[in-house]
Amino acid sequence: MNRLLLAAYPKSYRSRQGEELLACLAEAYPGRSWPPPREVAALACAGVQARARAVVDDAARPWWLDGIHLAALALAALALVPYLQDVWHWALHIDPGQQAIAFHFSGWYPWAGGPTRIRLLPYGLLPLGCLIALLRGRAWIALPAAAAMIWAGATTHGRTLFGSEGKAGLSYYGLGAPLTARDLVLSGTLCAACAVLALCRPSRLRRHSYRRLAPVVLAMFMAGSLHIISVSPAFQRGLFVLEVTALLGAWVATAATGDHRWLIPVAAVAIVRTQAIVVQPDAFMQSLPDLVVFLLLIAPLPALAITAQRRQGQALPE
Questions:
Q1: Crossing angle for the helix pair 11-28 and 37-57, nearest 10 degrees?
Q2: Of 51, 156, 244, 304, which sees the most CB atoms within 10 A?
Q3: Hey, CA dihedral for 126, 110, 87, 165, is it positive or negative?
Q4: Alpha carbon of 230 to those of 79, 150, 179, 287: distances in Å?
């Protein structure tokens, strides 16, 4: 089990010091397959710091380009969240019946029995395709997918293609207000980020392995198998924990390197979600008071900026 902890470290670190780290753990905690929780947290933190330093040391691309790439990935994942169950059911031709995601017409397809109106594709294929293309550094593929998201949210045409999914009904409301595909700030910001990335040379974008999609597939399996919709309390609590973990990871990486690239995705997600709360596109659900929501969204931004400045200030005397 100790080998699982090595996954937090970059490949170069694992090849050089992986066996030494395992030997130290075996000597420090004989007979235990897993170190104490405090040690696990420390090792995970050190792994994030090592990965962050490896990213910063890679001079193949400027920090701002990497930051925009991370922001586009975060926004594509945020747009995909409400449709995990929907895409899973469509891919496996599962008829969810009354347990479909809570949209009009219950998300029926031509091969499923149900209401009279049908649709051919789930809207979630657009952010999913955008996410996969961005992972592989193919911004020229992600750009038309993001533009199609704008079209689907801005028009009332093509109901047979996507039905009413992504245009009306429940969606991801996050910490405060609903965030549906009709809110064009999300899809517009994602499209703008993809456009900037597409204008750059493809070789300058970081390419991630398809293994990074494993958490997405797992989330789809869980949502589809258990029929968990994005507005269920269990889903929201799990997503909140994931977001807090991501923020802590950004803070650890910033504190270790003093680099500002992780501030860009945090700012992009905060702007999109703050706008949804201010505009209040659908006030039927509020999980926390507005003031608390604003603090949770905005507070990480100056915290990350101050952390980066302090780290840079410490690096100068060294």
A1: 160
A2: 304
A3: positive
A4: 11, 21, 11, 13
pLDDT over 50 at 191, yes or no: yes
pLDDT winner (highest mean) among 47-51, 58-62, 95-99, 217-221: 217-221
Of 5, 36, 45, 43, the residue nearest 248 (C-alpha): 45
Cβ 185 vs Cβ 276: under 8 Å? yes
8 Å CB contact between 76 and 190: yes
Residue 172 in 3-state DSSP?
strand
CA 39 to chain centre: 27
Which residue bears the tokens 């840079």? 312
Tens-digit pLDDT profile for residues 244-293: 888 888 888 888 787 888 888 888 888 888 787 777 655 444 555 556 66
> Could you tell me the two tokens for 211?
């293994």
- Give tens-digit pLDDT for 121-164: 888 899 999 999 999 989 999 999 999 988 888 875 556 777 66
Q: Is the pTM of this model over 0.85?
A: no
Return the sign of the alpha-carbon dihedral for residues 31, 37, 40, 42: negative
What is the spatial distance between Cα 176 and Cα 252, in angstroms, rounded to a whole number? 26
Residue 206 CA to residue 73 CA, distance in Å, equals 12
Cα gap 228→222, rounded to integer Å: 8
Taking the C-alpha atoms of residue 215 and residue 295, their distance in angstroms, rounded to an integer, is 28
